[in-house]
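During the reporting period the student researcher (J.K.) took over the structure-prediction task from the postdoctoral fellow and processed the backlog of single-chain submissions. One of the processed entries is reproduced below for the supervisory committee.
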Amino acid sequence: MAFRVLKNDRFKKQFVGKRVRRYDQTNELKIDQAYPSIEKLADVLLPPPNEAPSTVTDQNSPALTDQKLSSIPDSSSPTSTSNSQDTSDLPDPGPVPENSAKSDKKQTTGDLESENRESEKEPSNSLEKKDKASLPEEDEDEGSDQLEIDETSRIEPFNNVLSISTGYFTNASNFSGLGVLNNGFSISFAHSLISEMLFRSKTSQDSLGIELGGIYYRIINKDGGNDIYSMLPFYGELTYQIHFSQAFALGLYGGIQYNYMTSATNPGASLSSLQGPQVNAGLGVFFGIGPQWLLRADVGWDRITGGLGIKW
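J.K. obtained the following C-alpha cells:
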C-alpha cells in the first residue's frame, strides 16, 4: 500500500496517514502487527544522455562556397533555355474568377485548421492512455485528493517535569492521625504515562502519570527536651491532571510515603513513632510562566507547598 502522511506526532512517535494506492489484494492492515515500510524522499531522476558533439562547418569555407555556386543553374546553359521555351508554348489559362479563388482559399484554410486540431489532440490522447495504463488502479472508495482534517494538537506537549518545592510537610508515620507540620523542601520527578485518557478536545485534555520524590525537614523539640530529629522521607504517587491550556492545569495526587530518620539528637518518646509509612493525597495547581517553566502549588493531607518546575 501507499500512504500519504497527513500529520506527525513526534511526542507519541506516531503518524496519521491516508491510503492512496493498493498494489495487491490486501484490504486492511491488522492491529498490533509490524510491517516493513519504505519512506519516499524524492523521485529518482535519470541523468541526461551524453550527446555527441555536432560537426559545424564554416559557412565561409571555400569548399562550401564552391558547392553553392555549382548548384545554381546557369542561364546560358541549354537546359535553362529549353525550360523557358516550353513554358512560353503553354496556352494561357485565362483570368481566374475572384469568387472561386476566395472559396478555394477558404476551403483550403479550413482543411488545414481541422488537420492541425486533430494532430494536436492525437498526441495528448495517446499520452493520457499510456499514463493511465501504466498507473496502478486506485481504490474507488478513497474520495477526492482535497481533504479537510480537523487536527487537535496536544495542549501539554511535554511528558517530564523536574520540580523543587518548599513549604510545610506532615509526619503521620504508621498511618496515624494528622501530624505536626514541619518546614522543609522537596525535589521530585514526574513522568506522564497516558495522555488524552478521558478529555480530548481542543480546550481540555487530561493525563495520567507517576511522580517520585524526596523530602528533607527537621522536627525540633517535639518532646520538650531539646530533641532534634532529621527526617528524609521519599514517596511515590500517581498523578492525574486536566490541562485547560499550556498556562493552567489542575491535578490530583495520591500515593505512599515512607518517613526515614537520618539522625536524632537528645531523642525522647517520639523516636519510635516518627519513622514509618504514611498516606499522601491532595490537590495540585500548575501555572505556566514560559515555554518550559511552571509554578506549582500542592495542598493535601501530607503537605502545603509551592515550587518551581521545568518541563521537557
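The committee noted the following: DSSP finds three helices and twelve strands in the chain.
J.K. will present the remaining backlog at the next meeting.
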